[in-house]
Amino acid sequence: MFMNQTQSFWRRLWIPSRRKWLLGIPMGGFAAVAVGALSLSAFHGAINATNANAFCYSCHIGMDTIVEEYQQSIHFNNETGVQAQCADCHVPKEFFPKMLVKIRATKDIYHQLKGTVNLENFEQLRVHQAEVVFNTMKNRDSKECKNCHNPQQWNISMQSIRARNHHDPAAWQENNETCVDCHLGVAHKKPAIY
Ligand code: HEC
Ligand code: HEC
Ligand code: HEC
Ligand code: HEC
C-alpha cells in the first residue's frame, strides 16, 4: 500500500524487532518523545500528530483490514469531498475525554510490539473490539457522529423515506437509542454479532 513520508515515519517506529532485547529501543524512543512532549507547544503538536490518519495507519495497515475497509467506505470517499478521519469518530474533541482515550490507547503500543493482533486472528478478535467501540460510542450518545451529523440541523425532508421513518430523536430517547444502535458498519465491515 502507498504510504507518504509521515506514514512511513510512524510505521518505522513500531516495526517489532525479532530480538527480544531490541524491544527496548522503540520503548526508549517513546520515553524520549514523552519527555520532549512536556514542553507545552510540543505537547499540542504531539497530540495533533497522534490524531492524524497517518498515525493510525502506521499500526493498523498490515495488522488488520480496518484501513482497507475504511478506504472503501462512504466516510473516506464520497461526492462532496468531506472526509471523516479515524480520529473524528474515535477520539473526542473535548480535552479531558480526549486525554483519557490517549492514555487508554497506550496499551495498544504494548499490543503492537507484542503482535497480539494479526491478519490471521483479526476476524476473531474484531468481534470483541467492535463491542468495545460500540459500548464507548453508546455511552457518549454518539457524540462524535453528531459533531458532523447534527439532528437539530439536518433537513429531514431531504432524507430517504426509510431514514425519515427512523429519525425521530424523541423516539430515540424513549427507547434509549443512539446513532450506533442503528448504524454500525459505516466505516468498516459490520461486526458479525449484530
Ligand atoms: C502503536 C500502534 C497503534 C496505533 C498508532 C494505533 N493503534 Fe489502534 N490498535 C492497536 C492495537 C495493537 C489494537 C488492538 C489492541 C487490543 O486488542 O487491545 C488496536 C485497537 C484499536 C481499536 C479497537 C478498540 C480498542 O480500544 O481495543 C480502535 C477503535 C483503534 N485501535 C483505533 C485507532 C485509531 C483511531 C488510531 C489513530 C488515532 C489508532 N488506533 C492508532 C495499535 C495501534
Ligand atoms: C465514520 C466513523 C468512523 C471512522 C471514520 C472510523 N471508524 Fe472505526 N469504528 C466505527 C464504528 C461505528 C465502529 C464499531 C463497529 C463497526 O461498526 O464496525 C468502529 C470499529 C473500529 C474497530 C474495531 C474493529 C471492528 O471491526 O469493529 C477498529 C479497530 C477501528 N474502528 C479502527 C479505526 C481506524 C484505524 C480508522 C481509520 C482508518 C477508523 N476506525 C475510522 C466508526 C468509525
Ligand atoms: C467528519 C464528519 C463525519 C463524522 C464524524 C461522521 N460522519 Fe457520517 N457522513 C459524513 C459524510 C461527509 C457522509 C457522506 C455524505 C454523502 O456524501 O452523502 C456521511 C455519511 C453517513 C451515512 C450515510 C451512509 C450512506 O450509505 O449513504 C451514515 C448512515 C452516517 N454517515 C452515519 C455516521 C455515524 C453513525 C457516525 C458516527 C459513528 C458518523 N456518520 C460520523 C461525515 C461524518
Ligand atoms: C432507530 C434507528 C436509527 C437511529 C437511532 C438513527 N438512524 Fe440514521 N438511518 C436509519 C435508517 C433505517 C436509515 C435509512 C438507511 C437505508 O435506507 O439504508 C438511516 C439513514 C441515515 C443517513 C442517510 C440519510 C438518508 O437519506 O438515507 C444518515 C446520514 C444517518 N442515518 C445518520 C444518523 C445519525 C447521525 C444518527 C444519530 C444522530 C442516526 N442516523 C440515528 C435509522 C436510524
From TrEMBL:
Q: Which controlled-vocabulary keywords does the entry list?
A: Cell membrane, Electron transport, Heme, Iron, Membrane, Metal-binding, Transmembrane, Transmembrane helix, Transport
GO cellular component terms listed in the entry, alphabetical order: plasma membrane
- Per the UniProt record, the source organism is Gynuella sunshinyii YC6258
Q: Which chain regions cross the lipid bilayer? A: 21-43
Q: What is this protein called?
A: Cytochrome c-type protein
The protein's predominant localisation is: membrane
Q: Which residues form the NapC/NirT cytochrome c N-terminal domain?
A: 31-192
Q: Which Gene3D superfamilies match?
A: Di-heme elbow motif domain
Q: Which Gene Ontology biological process is one annotated for this entry? A: denitrification pathway
Q: Name the positions where heme 3 binds.
A: C145, C148, H149
UniProt-annotated binding residues for heme 1: C56, C59, M63, D108
For binding heme 4, which residues are annotated in this chain's numbering?
Answer: C179, C182, H183
Q: How many cofactor units bind, and how?
A: Binds 4 heme groups per subunit.
Q: Which InterPro entries does UniProt cross-reference here?
A: Cytochrome_c-type_ET, Multihaem_cyt_sf, NapC/NirT/NrfH, NapC/NirT_cyt_c_N, NapC/NirT_cytc_sf
Q: How does it sit in the membrane?
A: Single-pass membrane protein
Q: Where in the cell is it found?
A: Cell membrane
